[in-house]
Amino acid sequence: MSGEAPKSSAPPAPAPPPRPAGAPANKSRRRFLTLFAVVGGLLTLVPWIPNMGAFLSSSAGGAATATGNQTIILDENTLENGNASGKTVNVNDLTTFPPNSTWVMTYPSSGSPSIDGQNPNTFVKFALIRLPKELGGANKSASDFVAFSKVCVHLWCSPNYNPTQSVDSSENGYMAGEATHELYECPCHGSGYSVGADGKPVGLALIGPASVQPAPTNAIPLLTLTTDTSGNLQVVPPIWDVDHNGVVAYGRVTGNGAFTGGYNPQ
Ligand code: FES
Question: Could you state, in order of their start, the residue ranges of all structural domains in the chain?
């Protein structure tokens, strides 16, 4: 018996065919464009992919939670927050924080309103809205406010509260003869989220493309609010799943009993 290893009987690999005349000399650009198109297509599907939002929000920092209640100090940013920039929000202060108004805050906060004001990450930004008076915005309690994620659940633009109304001429946002908005409106494709008017669930998209997406991708995530004994507004540690505070950039369930008609979903 020989100790030599048997020789392979496999035929040699065929030589690659010659490149046809006129074929592109460099495939890397075509591969890049193909990859670009595939990634772009997948991103448009994100709101429709279960658990994808959870992955993305946690990877972007939106699912972080502070230890204990966080007293709300607005971002130090006069463009966004005017004379309330960098201030602690107190529900008893109807002058600095008047009804039917909005400001930008960060959750979880760095602890410095200046650093928060320079943080461009919309996944940790929330629009704090003091409701119009007819929706309870002058009751001097935590339920005067809602705090919505700044990431639209359609394609991730940043909505803003539109206070326009024609109900109370003494109130911010009054415009005689104008149609009432009082919605959290996205500038990109026109989704509009409820702040609770007409008994609609808070945060539910009423108009625009987000309103025709299936639950839970048809409602904006929000923060749970409370106050300390001095009336300072605070964030209760959120539960970042669709049945509670929602998943940033993905959505939240409304109308399941836990959220109906309430601004504090716990
Ligand atoms: S990204 Fe908000 S409506 Fe499209």
Answer: 31-236
45 Cβ neighbours under 8 A, 6+ residues apart:
none
Probe ligand 1: pick from 157, 193, 211, max atoms within 8 Å of CB?
Answer: 157
CA–centroid distance, residue 33 to ligand 1 (Å): 25
Show the ligand 1 pocket: residues with CB < 6 angstroms.
152, 154-157, 186, 188-191, 208-210
CATH architecture of 31-236: 3-layer Sandwich (2.102)
This prediction's pTM: 0.77
Tokens at 60, concatenated = 């972007």
CA angle 252, 87, 66 (to 5 degrees): 45
pLDDT recorded at residue 148: 97
* Gap from CA of 157 to ligand 1 centroid (Å): 6
User: What are the pLDDT digits (tens) for 205-239?
Assistant: 999 999 999 999 999 999 999 999 999 999 999 99
Q: Distances from the Cα of 27 to the Cαs of 32, 33, 34, 249, in angstroms?
A: 9, 10, 11, 35
So what's the pLDDT on residue 19?
Answer: 42
Distance 140 CA to ligand 1 centre (A): 32
